[in-house]
Amino acid sequence: MISTNPFLIFQSMTLQSKSKLQNKNVKLPVIEQIFPPNTDEGEFCPTCMSHIRGSKVPTLAVCHRFKYLEQPECLGALNDLEERLVSLRIFGISPHKLTGR
Ligand SMILES: [Zn+2]
């Protein structure tokens, strides 16, 4: 996903451009689909980059009608910790089901 997300900042996002992806042998139709119109560069998370490197359009792509909702004003005032506490998902943490004996 391109980092227009007003809610989260991914530290491992990488800045990519259309020409940079072409140099990495990503197919042109894929490149054309992952960038919004009139946009030549954007930041992508590791999950999206793994799809792109495999010449696949990420699930969370603009061409799949993915877009962020408008940020509610009350969320704009949160600090990093508060933001994590109210997040639906905390990235980098995988929940595991515990098995009882
Ligand atoms: Zn992504």
UniProtKB/TrEMBL annotation:
One of its GO terms (molecular function) is helicase activity. Keywords: ATP-binding, Helicase, Hydrolase, Nucleotide-binding. This is ATP-dependent DNA helicase.
